[in-house]
Design goal:
mainly alpha, 5 helices, elongated
Protein backbone atom coordinates (compact mmCIF):
# COMPACT_ATOMS: atom_id res chain seq x y z
CA UNK A 1 0.00 0.00 0.00
CA UNK A 2 2.89 2.36 0.75
CA UNK A 3 4.19 1.93 -2.80
CA UNK A 4 0.77 2.94 -4.12
CA UNK A 5 0.76 6.05 -1.92
CA UNK A 6 4.21 7.01 -3.18
CA UNK A 7 3.07 6.56 -6.78
CA UNK A 8 -0.05 8.63 -6.09
CA UNK A 9 2.12 11.40 -4.65
CA UNK A 10 4.55 11.31 -7.57
CA UNK A 11 1.76 11.40 -10.14
CA UNK A 12 0.07 14.24 -8.25
CA UNK A 13 3.34 16.21 -8.22
CA UNK A 14 3.74 15.57 -11.95
CA UNK A 15 0.22 16.85 -12.68
CA UNK A 16 0.73 19.95 -10.55
CA UNK A 17 4.01 20.73 -12.31
CA UNK A 18 2.64 20.17 -15.81
CA UNK A 19 -0.53 22.13 -15.01
CA UNK A 20 1.58 25.04 -13.80
CA UNK A 21 3.53 24.91 -17.07
CA UNK A 22 0.29 24.94 -19.06
CA UNK A 23 -1.25 27.81 -17.11
CA UNK A 24 1.91 29.94 -17.34
CA UNK A 25 2.22 29.24 -21.08
CA UNK A 26 5.62 27.60 -20.84
CA UNK A 27 7.19 27.65 -24.35
CA UNK A 28 7.40 23.85 -24.48
CA UNK A 29 3.68 23.54 -23.77
CA UNK A 30 2.73 26.20 -26.32
CA UNK A 31 4.92 24.52 -28.93
CA UNK A 32 3.52 21.06 -28.20
CA UNK A 33 -0.11 22.10 -28.45
CA UNK A 34 0.59 24.02 -31.66
CA UNK A 35 2.37 20.96 -33.10
CA UNK A 36 -0.63 18.77 -32.27
CA UNK A 37 -2.96 21.31 -33.85
CA UNK A 38 -4.90 22.01 -30.66
CA UNK A 39 -6.06 25.39 -29.46
CA UNK A 40 -4.26 26.50 -26.32
CA UNK A 41 -7.67 26.46 -24.63
CA UNK A 42 -7.31 22.67 -24.61
CA UNK A 43 -4.13 23.06 -22.54
CA UNK A 44 -5.89 25.36 -20.08
CA UNK A 45 -8.84 22.96 -19.85
CA UNK A 46 -6.58 19.99 -19.15
CA UNK A 47 -4.73 21.99 -16.48
CA UNK A 48 -8.05 22.89 -14.85
CA UNK A 49 -8.91 19.17 -14.78
CA UNK A 50 -5.45 18.03 -13.66
CA UNK A 51 -5.12 20.31 -10.62
CA UNK A 52 -8.15 19.01 -8.69
CA UNK A 53 -7.30 15.48 -9.81
CA UNK A 54 -3.80 15.86 -8.33
CA UNK A 55 -5.19 17.20 -5.07
CA UNK A 56 -7.67 14.32 -4.92
CA UNK A 57 -4.85 11.81 -5.51
CA UNK A 58 -2.98 13.31 -2.55
CA UNK A 59 -6.11 13.27 -0.38
CA UNK A 60 -6.61 9.65 -1.44
CA UNK A 61 -3.73 8.64 0.81
CA UNK A 62 -6.12 9.23 3.72
CA UNK A 63 -9.51 8.85 2.06
CA UNK A 64 -9.61 6.15 -0.64
CA UNK A 65 -12.67 7.62 -2.38
CA UNK A 66 -10.63 10.74 -3.18
CA UNK A 67 -7.98 8.69 -4.99
CA UNK A 68 -10.68 6.93 -6.99
CA UNK A 69 -12.29 10.26 -7.91
CA UNK A 70 -8.94 11.85 -8.83
CA UNK A 71 -7.85 8.95 -10.99
CA UNK A 72 -11.21 8.74 -12.77
CA UNK A 73 -11.19 12.50 -13.31
CA UNK A 74 -7.83 12.53 -15.06
CA UNK A 75 -7.97 9.20 -16.91
CA UNK A 76 -9.81 10.65 -19.95
CA UNK A 77 -7.16 13.35 -20.38
CA UNK A 78 -4.40 10.74 -20.16
CA UNK A 79 -6.13 8.57 -22.73
CA UNK A 80 -6.38 11.65 -24.96
CA UNK A 81 -2.66 12.29 -24.45
CA UNK A 82 -1.84 8.71 -25.40
CA UNK A 83 -3.98 8.90 -28.54
CA UNK A 84 -2.40 12.24 -29.49
CA UNK A 85 1.11 10.86 -29.00
CA UNK A 86 0.30 7.76 -31.02
CA UNK A 87 -1.16 9.92 -33.78
CA UNK A 88 1.98 12.06 -33.93
CA UNK A 89 4.37 9.14 -33.41
CA UNK A 90 5.94 10.20 -30.14
CA UNK A 91 7.14 6.80 -28.82
CA UNK A 92 8.88 7.83 -25.56
CA UNK A 93 5.95 9.98 -24.53
CA UNK A 94 3.50 7.22 -25.37
CA UNK A 95 5.25 4.74 -23.12
CA UNK A 96 5.38 7.20 -20.25
CA UNK A 97 1.74 8.16 -20.74
CA UNK A 98 0.67 4.52 -20.84
CA UNK A 99 2.64 3.84 -17.65
CA UNK A 100 0.84 6.70 -15.90
CA UNK A 101 -2.50 5.35 -17.12
CA UNK A 102 -1.61 1.90 -15.78
CA UNK A 103 -0.76 3.35 -12.36
CA UNK A 104 -4.01 5.36 -12.32
CA UNK A 105 -6.01 2.24 -13.14
CA UNK A 106 -4.19 0.41 -10.32
CA UNK A 107 -5.07 3.26 -7.95
CA UNK A 108 -8.72 2.97 -8.92
CA UNK A 109 -8.77 -0.82 -8.48
CA UNK A 110 -6.92 -0.93 -5.16
CA UNK A 111 -8.46 2.16 -3.60
CA UNK A 112 -11.95 1.25 -4.82
CA UNK A 113 -11.59 -2.01 -2.92
CA UNK A 114 -10.62 -0.11 0.24
CA UNK A 115 -13.45 2.35 -0.33
CA UNK A 116 -16.11 -0.35 -0.70
CA UNK A 117 -14.75 -2.17 2.37
CA UNK A 118 -15.13 1.05 4.38
CA UNK A 119 -18.72 1.38 3.18
CA UNK A 120 -19.43 -2.25 4.12
CA UNK A 121 -17.89 -1.72 7.57
CA UNK A 122 -19.98 1.42 8.10
CA UNK A 123 -23.13 -0.40 7.03
CA UNK A 124 -22.35 -3.25 9.39
CA UNK A 125 -22.05 -0.80 12.28
CA UNK A 126 -25.36 0.89 11.53
CA UNK A 127 -27.37 -2.20 10.62
CA UNK A 128 -29.48 -3.60 13.44
CA UNK A 129 -28.57 -7.10 14.46
CA UNK A 130 -31.17 -9.63 15.47
CA UNK A 131 -30.16 -12.40 17.78
CA UNK A 132 -32.29 -15.47 18.20
Amino acid sequence: MIVLWILQGLIAALYLMVSYMKLTRHPHMVESFELFGYSYRVAVFTAVVEIPAALLLIAGIWWPWCAVAGALLVLPTMIGAAVTNLRFKGPPEVLFTLAVIAVLVAVVIVQWGDFTEAIDDANALTSPTVSL
